[in-house]
Structures are given as structure tokens and as C-alpha cells.
Amino acid sequence: QPARAVDLVEEESGAPGEEQRRWEEARLGAASLKFGARDAASQEPKYQLVLEEEETIEFVRATQLQGDEEPSAPPTPTPAQQKESIQAVRRSLPVFPFREELLAAIANHQVLIIEGETGSGKTTQIPQYLFEEGYTKKGMKIACTQPRRVAAMSVAARVAREMGVKLGNEVGYSIRFEDCTSERTVLRYMTDGMLLREFLSEPDLASYSVVMVDEAHERSLHTDILFGLIKDVARFRPELKVLVASATLDTARFSTFFDDAPVFRIPGRRFPVDIFYTKAPEADYLEACVVSVLQIHVTQPPGDILVFLTGQEEIEAACEMLQDRCRRLGSKIRELLVLPIYANLPSDMQARIFQPTPPGARKVVVATNIAETSLTIEGIIYVLDPGFCKQKSYNPRTGMESLTVTPCSKASANQRAGRAGRVAAGKCFRLYTAWAYQHELEETTVPEIQRTSLGNVVLLLKSLGIHDLMHFDFLDPPPYETLLLALEQLYALGALNHLGELTTSGRKMAELPVDPMLSKMILASEKYSCSEEILTVAAMLSVNNSIFYRPKDKVVHADNARVNFFLPGGDHLVLLNVYTQWAESGYSSQWCYENFVQFRSMRRARDVREQLEGLLERVEVGLSSCQGDYIRVRKAITAGYFYHTARLTRSGYRTVKQQQTVFIHPNSSLFEEQPRWLLYHELVLTTKEFMRQVLEIESSWLLEVAPHYYKAKELEDPHAKKMPKKIGKTREELG
Ligand code: CDP
Ligand code: MG
What we know:
Blueprint: H1 2-11, H2 18-32, E1 46-48, E2 58-65, H3 79-83, H4 86-92, H5 99-108, E3 111-116, H6 122-132, E4 141-146, H7 149-163, E5 171-175, E6 178-180, E7 187-191, H8 192-201, E8 208-213, H9 221-236, E9 241-246, H10 251-257, E10 263-266, E11 273-278, H11 285-299, E12 304-308, H12 312-329, E13 336-341, H13 347-352, E14 362-367, H14 370-373, E15 380-385, E16 388-395, E17 400-407, H15 410-418, E18 426-430, H16 434-440, H17 455-463, H18 480-492, H19 504-511, H20 516-527, H21 531-543, H22 555-564, H23 571-584, H24 589-594, H25 599-616, H26 630-641, E19 645-649, E20 652-655, E21 661-664, E22 677-685, E23 689-696, H27 699-705, H28 725-728, H29 731-734
Helix pairs in contact: 6-7, 8-9, 11-12, 17-18, 17-19, 19-20, 20-21, 20-26, 21-23, 21-25
The structure holds cytidine-5'-diphosphate (CDP) and magnesium ion.
Magnesium ion binds at residues 122-123, 214.
């Protein structure tokens, strides 16, 4: 049925595969061990929600977040309120009464720290006030940075609607690989990373009259770097206004950093929130989430629910489980709208979370951290917090970066709880014990700059002529070893010379808005005459893990379809194969449907590919194709990723340089092949250190692409002599 086909493709229900679920489950089990400590049983009365015969989770009411207002307001906006004009809504925001005062403060100070409860109107209103006040006269622009892409897009869309203009005209957004701005765009919402890149073309930000660094409390890597750069620019551009906006956290630090800039506080408007903890630790928080949402739904008065999970896969799994149970319960329960929100969610789907809930129904929004402070959804009364988030961590000794699900900080947990008290008194259900909250959560989240690799940022700073990184003005400096390793890696990639100066190739690498290793791979495609293929691989790697679609009822078909794309050599070639066949189909959505490929991901890959292709000329790489000689493609990839190599030893895979134990991800096409030498795109720590997107290589290629990095001796194979010759051969040799 073609109608259903369109449906499926358009919906992007992206059910995670069984395999993925398995890993997910194993991981969840591991993660929850952290909360496995005993509970100092609370004396508070027991609070139990009951859902027919289904299992239930027991919560105990333990604390209350103090609000500033009496709990009286109606839980959801009345239809009359919803119909109120946009201007009336604008006037109702907490920031509005302070409009004049705020504008005066901005006029009087070059740098102003603005602190206000989430949802008070900082992001959507302040740039508009500045616009109305004439800060965009003479073609000057206002930048407002967001650490998250979704926030930049959705906020820009909201502001465009409020101003009654088309998105991309006066108001627009700019995120990596997606520019929705034009010559006319004076209010520019952008990711912090994009403003960083603006420094490359306009080091003094001369076309901007105001820069608002928003969500400063998030302390994302790029925001932290922006602080240093903007502080510097502000010194020699006295007319530039700098605003640092933050939720109510840590604003004194920002003030001190900016030479004691004044802090403007927007008084909050917050209702009390009752906090409940589980009596005992939950073994599987995903399952516990689903049960709790249903418990809330059947036992609690009207009001929408916000659930915090850690990422796309988990969110999709939870949404699916919820929809499944609702379907089974049928008319026994009232309607429950289940809506996901995460970074890669297509924008039309994002918009749905902001639509008012129909009368009689309840909405549950299943979100990542993004809903903690970056986005405000009206009507939330209940927050469900499993207490986890996905966090990057980095080991500068081994150079290994991993993304792990870790318990969130107390500051995070309290931000999350606060989301329940915006429109009325709310409730926050924490899926961990009061004991765990007290004893196992860190106070605050460590700034990203201290737990990530810095290759990208160091390359950018070097391109901006900032040579002495050790003395860069950091709000919190990164670990010394991390900086050093970044310099070393950039040297190995040929981006810096032995004096630490930027090379020609380094300058080109900085031109490409991707990680240094990926840039290097693209540059290397010139030498191996395969830029067409490498562009595709780069684009497919950038859309990341959401290529294949695996609906529960067609698992076998989906798996067969996936295996059909396998090519000897590994996952990068599989990605290339998928894209090539899709392109041959005329970029057809029907083709995607038939082959269990996610159309949206492919469309995005196509966008990314086009943009990268547009930059090739700037980095002096010509278009060329390998004509089926995949060895060349694999060598070009190796030229970028020779840092990420592993070899098979008696006791499994070990990274070549650091001798770390790693494993091939079960979703990889090489999972069963177990080649002797391989490179990986990234490591993901779940139950183990998994290598995702792996490619079979030959050790001799490492000497070819990185002779300065590898010595022949360390690439010798200790077991090779003992192996019968044939087994030692690669598949190419065997034909
Ligand atoms: O930045 P801050 O957290 O202070 O508030 P904001 O993001 O400017 O939000 C102000 C209001 O705009 C809130 O009531 C949000 O619900 C609303 N908003 C929206 O309806 N749609 C968006 N995409 C963003 C904000
Ligand atoms: Mg905001």
C-alpha cells in the first residue's frame, strides 16, 4: 500500500533494532548499578500510584522545591488564553515588566550578565527588544547563541512567528550544515559553534552590534571558548554589546570573568514542586519510566508530563513502548499523546511538542536534556526524572573519547524538577531514591571543556592566530594533558608543524566544518583520487547511526535488507553503498521504504554532502571518483583515522598505540568477520568500549599514510609467523 509507505517514511518511527535494544538493556542494567545503594527509608507517608493490575512503582514524597507563588493557577492554559494574541503572550512573560530597565542597563554597560528562570523570556524576547530599540540599524546584526541545534531552530521559528516575518528573512538560524538566514537576517540565532566559525571570516565580529551568549550555564565547549574570544573583541570594539544569559546558576562566575560586569536579575515566577523519590532503586529505568508515565496518567489530575531520557535511541524506544501499552489499554484510559524531542528530530516533528494539548487528552513529552533549560513547553505539571544524562568523557592519557550514560548532577536534577512548576504547582517523580540523590549525585556538571578532546577547537584557535593556548583566557582551563594531546594529534595529522604553527594543510582543515580527522580524510581524497566517494562517506558518518530502519514486525526483512548492503571492507563502504544506490534510485523515498533505510537521514546526508562539496574548491580538492577501486577509498579514510586503529590479538581487539581493549559493535558489518587490522570512527562506552563504524585496513597502509606516526616495528604481527599463510591473507588477496 503506497499510502502506508509514505506514512512510514514520513513518520520516521525509527524503531531501534532488537540488537540495539539488547545492548541498551545491558547498558541500562549497568548504569542503574550506580543507584543501587540502599535507601535510608524516608519517614514521609508513602505515595503510591496504582494502575490496574499492571506492576506499579512506589514513590515517597520527600522534599519540595519552594516556589514564589501560591499554587492556584489552572494547570493548562484555557482555550481563551491560547487564543490570546501573540503580543499579549509576550507581555505576560516575566521579562516584560523589566523591558525598559533592561534596555537601559544594556545601553549603560558593555557587558551585562542576565540571569533568569527558564521560560522567563530571555531567549525569545531580549533580541526582539534590541531589534525594536534600533540595535539593527545600518545593517548591524544581533547574534544569539545556543549550545543546541534544536533550540536554535525552534527559538528562531518562534521569534519569526512573534514578529510576523518569514523564518529566514529578518529572523533566521544558522547551525552546522544548515543555514536558514539571508542578507536581510538581522536576528541570528545560531549554535555557539557557528559563531565560533564566524570569527574565521570576521575576527572582530564587525557586522554585529550585539552578541548574546545564551544558555551560558550549560558551559558547552564552544560557549566557553566564545567567552575568551568575545572578551578580547569587546576590548577593542567598545560599541559592541555583550550579553551573557543564564539560568539561575553560577552567574557570579560570569560576572567575575567579564571584569565584574553587572548582573541583571529577572525575578522568577515559580510554583512549588513536590518531589517524590522511589522507595527502592529501579533496575531498568526505561521500563520504570513507561510504567510511571501510565501511573501518572491514570491517577493524576490533568497536566502534561515531561520525561527526561538520555538520547534518541532511548527516547524512541520509550515512545514506542508507551504507544504500545496505550494501544493495549485502549479505551480504559484517556488519550495520551506521546511526543519525542531530541537533537536530530526533524523540525516539523519538533513543532508538535509546542502545540496545545487537546481538551481531555494528556501530552507526554519524552526529551533529552534539551528540555532542561533550552526549551520551555507550556502546560507541564509532571516531571519524570530517571536521573541520567549522556555525557562525553575524555581520557587525555589514551586519547579516547566516549559517550556514556551517567547520573546527572544535583543542579540538573533541580532544573528538571523546576520544569514542573512553571504554570502551576507541580510534581516531580525521581526514579531514584532520596539516598541516591543525597549521596550519589555530583553537585554540578563538569564543564565540557574539561571532558572532551580539543583538536577541533585548538585548530580553530590556531587559525585565528592564537598561538599561546596555555595562556588563553579560559573561564575554566582544560586539563593540560588534553591541550598537549590535541597539539600532538594536530601535528600528526599535519595541521601543525613542529613549532606548533599552522600549516597550509592545517589552514584547509580548519575551513571544513568537521572534526580534524574527517577533514584530513577529505583532504587525503585528493591524493587517492576518490573525493566523490569520500564526500559521501563523510556525509553519511555525519548523520550518524540512524540510517537503517527496523520495524518490530519486519525484523527479518529489515535485517536482510541491511545485510544486502554489506561490502567487503567494512561499514564505511556499506554507508557508501547505501548512498550510491539511493542516488541511483533518484533519491527516492520509495526506495528507502523498500530497503528499510531512513529517508530523513538520507536527505540530511545529501544536504551535508552538497555543502561539503561546495567547500572542496576552497580546500583545493578536485572532484574525482575511484571507479570501484575501494582500496583507494579505504586508504583515504586511513589517512584521516590512523589514530583510531585496533588490531586483533589473542585476547581480542587492542588499540594499536595505547593497547586498550575494545570491541566491534554488534551492529557492524564486520562483527563476525573479525579482521586483523581495523580502524574505527568512534568509540562508544556502553557495557564495553565498542567501536562504531569500523573498516578493515592493512597495517602497511598505516606506514604509507602516517610514516611519522607509526614505526614498522610496532606494526609487526607477533602471531603472523605461527599462522598458516592463507589465513594471514586479506580478503582482497583471496579474491
Ligand atoms: O530563554 P528563556 O528560558 O528565559 O525563555 P524563552 O525561551 O524565551 O521562552 C519564553 C516563552 O516562549 C515560553 O513561554 C515558551 O513556552 C515560549 N516558547 C515557545 O512557545 N516556543 C518556542 N520554540 C520557544 C519558546
Ligand atoms: Mg532560553
